[in-house]
Write a structure and sequence with these properties.
Strand order of the largest sheet: 7-4-9-8
Number of strands: 10
Radius of gyration: 19 Å
Shape: elongated
Order of helices and strands: EEEEEEEHEEEHH
Helix content: 10-25%
Number of helices: 3
Largest sheet: 4 strands, mixed
């Protein structure tokens, strides 16, 4: 690192994230700078794959962008929570499915230019259909199943624009291609 932190303040403590502002000094030049960071506890995203090789996504309203988005089932980590447990919880809550096997796909930072949120991505197989357990604010959420080629087309045509879903889908293709043979 070519800087030192002179001062760090939490300007806002929220339910979903905190806003931190750091005053820094670059060690080589002595120039000052400000860094604004959205502190987030992280989350888990799960990509369920059915026995007939379809990937389950949810369509839900996202307040921040005022749009309905197609995405992997996802949720925020509780303090100290194992991301795999969070993925299991969100799978049941948002899709109604439970899985006999949940495996890690990888990890991604959602937007590291200003946010420290790390997302843990999982694939779920051996699915059993059940009833969802959605939270308040998840009304109207719908569940859809797509083949790999359908998802490629939805991404190509900007129907799926959620970054975590695009990253997770690509990791699924790279690391678990055997599921789709």
């Amino acid at each position: 690192m070519n800087f030192k932190i002179d001062k760090s303040d939490i300007l806002y403590k929220g339910v979903v994230f905190n806003l931190r502002v750091d005053e820094i000094t670059y060690t080589n030049s002595g120039n000052k700078g400000l860094r604004q960071v959205a502190e987030h506890p992280g989350g888990a995203v799960v990509f369920p794959v059915t026995d007939d090789k379809k990937i389950v996504l949810v369509k839900q309203y996202r307040y921040a962008v005022d749009e309905w988005l197609l995405e992997g089932a996802a949720g925020k980590l509780e303090p100290g929570e194992d991301p795999a447990h969070c993925a299991e919880r969100e799978l049941k809550e948002e899709t109604g499915y439970t899985a006999s096997k949940i495996e890690k796909l990888g990890e991604v930072f959602s937007s590291p230019g200003f946010c420290d949120e790390k997302l843990y991505l999982y694939v779920a197989t051996g699915l059993t259909k059940g009833e969802h357990a959605r939270e308040e604010g998840e009304e109207g959420m719908e569940v859809f199943e797509y083949t790999m080629s359908e998802l490629d087309e939805l991404i190509r045509n900007d129907v799926i624009t959620d970054a975590k879903t695009i990253a997770g889908f690509n990791l699924l293709k790279i690391k678990f291609s055997g599921l789709f043979e």
